[in-house]
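ugh ok fine here u go
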Amino acid sequence: MKFSHIKALVEKEFYQIIRDPSSILIAFVLPVMLIILFAYAISLDISKMKIGLVLEDDSNYARTLAGAYISNSYFDAQVARDRRAFESALVGGHIRGIIIIPQDFGKTLEQGQLKSLEVITDGSEPNTANFIQNYALAVWNNWSSQQSVLSGRQSAGNLSVESRIWYNPELESRHFLLPAALALIMTLIGSLLTGLVVSREWERGTMEALLSTAITRGEFLLGKLIPYFFLGVLSIILSSCIIIWFFQTPFRGSVLALGISGGVFLFTALGMGLLISTLAKNQFVACQVTFITAFMPTLLLSGFIFEINSMPLVLQMITHIIPAKYLIACLQSIFMVGDVMAILIPNICYMAIVAAIFLTLTLAKTRTRLE
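structure:
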């Protein structure tokens, strides 16, 4: 393996990157677009859920409870006296639930009897229905506690619970999504950057010229890998700076841990892309295979959005072979918690093993002569 050969191939690839704007777009424009998309368009936070609030009782207790629901930031409540006023709106999807404060609510409450509320939700969206039920219960518990304190009737059996939320006390889904989105970006960019390079050589007829030279398979692989690794590193730096500084995502770990975990995974993504590009001699086919084998599994099976423990056992087993799953674990630790070595070391080692497998397969499948 000669350094002069590798240097010449790297220079050739850099010139190709400069002449071909698609690589620049993939490395720098696509990450910014994806970060903006995940920051603004995709959110797991629920706010201003449209509900109907039925006030069948006119007591002071009922009005104050209704005021608690109206002033709550999670609800956008419309008030009526009859539940039938909201039935058509619930069926049509204009509201997501109905909270009913029943008749004699205040009277039964003054008598010391626990009066239940009725919450009707739209089960066509199960997550939203669960949110409405939980938030309705939370507002009721908070209001009930306040009334007990104001009336001086707090019973000895009441339990005071002080809850604390570690790492993300604001419960901002953006703080969870953006670090995980960085893994999705690196998967897509890394595999796409190299997923097209070898197939492009075959399509443009330049592969024959390369194969006629004295380069070895290792030199050819390094000549393709080094420029796009450098481009991927710049993309990671740009994406991380936007996530941390522009969107104010907490960063409690070290730059070194981020660089090591990101760099190792970048070798994994680039190796996967090179393997796809080596096997497919058509750029369109290589692009489609990249989306199917890299982007979709990362989006659906890495724990990026969907909880892995909630998946069927078969899918949980499949997630163990998704490299992005281990990068997401590293990124969430680095951004939200810090450098937890018990999390970082095994995940980084797994990604290094996968990278070695991909690069070894690519080296074995790279052709050095025409057939």
